[in-house]
Amino acid sequence: MRKLIIYTVSLLFAFQSSIAANFTVTGKVKGLTNGSTATLKNVFNGQSLATATIADGAFILKGNVNEGMLLQLIFSAAPQINIEMFIGGEAVLIEGDIAAPDQIKLSGSALHQTYEKFKFQFVPLKDKLNAIVPIIQAETAQTPKRDSLIGLFNNYKQVLINETVTFVNANPASVVSSFALYAVGPLFSGPQELERMFNELQPAAQKGYFSEMIVKSVNDAKIGQIGSMATEFTQNDQNGKPVKLTSFRGKYVLIDFWASWCRPCRQENPNVVAAFNKFKSKNFTVLGVSLDQDKNGWIQAIAADKLTWTHVSDLKYWSNEVAQLYRIQSIPANLLIDPTGKIIGKDLRGEDLLQKLASILK
Questions:
Q1: For the chain, N or C: smaller number of CB within 10 Å?
Q2: pTM flag (> 0.85)
């Protein structure tokens, strides 16, 4: 259920990119109190970009924004009403009556028109996903009803993905497409699908904040995956000496995540010892990363289990920075790295570890 929550929470509207541009927002909104204010804020960080005093419903907001930014127009006389606009360096016009906020219109921005098209498809489906999550959570037992609800959730999710793909394919040069991919990206089956869709965008749409966030999320998702390069880290050994992962470059290395308090880890340790002793003369070693808090317990377990390889830990328990870096959710866990630093195996235990090492260390 945590995944369902993450999916829905991730579908947030927030946009900011990196090319500075000037904007002008001219407002003609009836029903606003003279002397009250209109403020334009960045939805992403809440920063106020411009404020103007209203006279007879009229106001002009000017300032600098990054191209393709999602903004929010707020009126001090009607704080419950927020008007979204997706604009860049454009001159736009806001017209309507504060008594009918749903009918307030924005004109002059092609970006906003594209954004409205995406919202028209996205919002109803997003609302369906959000509505079904608490119903699923209320079904604590694994029943046919719960299975049916999860199936319905997955159907809505797939429709939303399909609609987004259709939208992006129809607007490959629009920065709104990079926003759409970032908003819906957590629902994709994996980072490869998001990366493929992003790479199909035209260069004009591959710039700015959300493009950067897509690239970051894809790269982060690849951390610890087989076929990716192991991410560098440095952590201290038992004597406080910094140890870098890259100091083992040129060797096959098993990064072994464990802890003295972890019974399954201690039960697995004899298998790791057997692998180390059998292949240590064939360019293989182990680097232990402990999720311990107590240094004495850690050191005693190393001696008791005869773990005669390099060990590191920051003694931060589950907050161990290396474990956090590699998204380690349970232990024992391990990563097998080749001499170039590429990950070639994951969570190899017992006979599987021995067979894998035997196949590469002949």
A1: C
A2: no
